[in-house]
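Appendix B. One record, verbatim.
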Amino acid sequence: MSTIRRQLPETHDTRLLALQQAKAKLDTLPPASNPLSTATTTRLTNSLTDFLARMSNISLARAAYSGNTAQKNAAEAEARMWVSHYYQVFNLGVARGEYAAADRAYYNLPIDSSALPDMASEADLALWGNRVSTGEAARVGAGGTAMSNPTQLQVKTKVDAYVAELSQQTGFYETLDTAEEALEAILPETDKVIKKVWDELETYYNEESDESRRENCRQWGVVYVTEGSSKTLSGTVTYNGAPGVGLVVRFKSGINKSTVNAQGAYSLSTTLMDSQKIAIEKFDSNNQLIRSWEFEVVLQENQNTVEDFVVND
C-alpha cells in the first residue's frame, strides 16, 4: 500500500527552489492574506537573499577555476615535456661518456639508474623541474659542462610558467572551497526556515481535505512524494557514445545515488513511485560538479524499472 509524505529538500538546488517558490507565491498575495507569521516571512526573505548571494559566489568561483583549467593543463604538459627531455638528454650524455654517472647525484637521481624520475603528480613535476636548475648549477659549479638542447634556462622558463599557473589554479580552488564552505555554514538555518514555512502552511490549510491541503501547499513549493514497495531502477548510461563510467545517477527526490560502472551500468533502490526526476552528474577530479542532465521516469508499485540514458557534451 502506498503512502504520501512530505519531502524536505536535501540538495542546494532543491533548497533554492523551495525558497524561491515560497517567496514567489508570497509576492502574489496582499499582506492581509499572508498565511505566514511576520517572523517567518522575514526569515524567508532574508534566507533567500543570503542563499542566492552565496550560490552566486560559488558560480563565479567555479567559472574562474574551470576557465583556468585548460591554461594550467597546457602549461603542465609543456613543462613535463621539457623536464623529461632534459633528464633524457642528460642520461644519453652519461651513456656517451660526456657526463659521469655520479653526476646524477646533483639532481637527486640514483647514480646507477637511467630511469626518469616520477613526475605523475603536480607536486612531483614542480619538484623535479626545480631540481633541473639546482642540479645544473651545482654540477657546473663543480666544473661540469653545461647542458644544451635543452638548456637549464629553457627548462626553467617552462617550469616557472607552470608553477605560476598552478599557483593561480590553487588560488581559484581555494576561493571556490571558501565559497562552498560559506554556503554550507547557512544550511542549518536554511533548512529550519523551509521547514518552518512548510509547517505553517500545513497548519493554515489543516481544516481542508488531505488532497486540498497538499494542493494548496504545493503552490508554495511544498514537495510530497508517494512511496510504496521497495523497487529498483537500473539500466545503462551512455556518454558521448561510450559507457558513462564515473557519472553519478540519483533521484532528485531522495538521497539514493549510483556511480556508473565500467560497463556503463547503474542501479538505484527506492520506495518512490509515480513520476520522478533523475539527475545524471559529472564531477571533476576535485569532486566538483561540472555538468548535469535531467530526465524523468515513471515508477510503478511492485515493479522494477529498466531505463537507459544517453547524454552528450
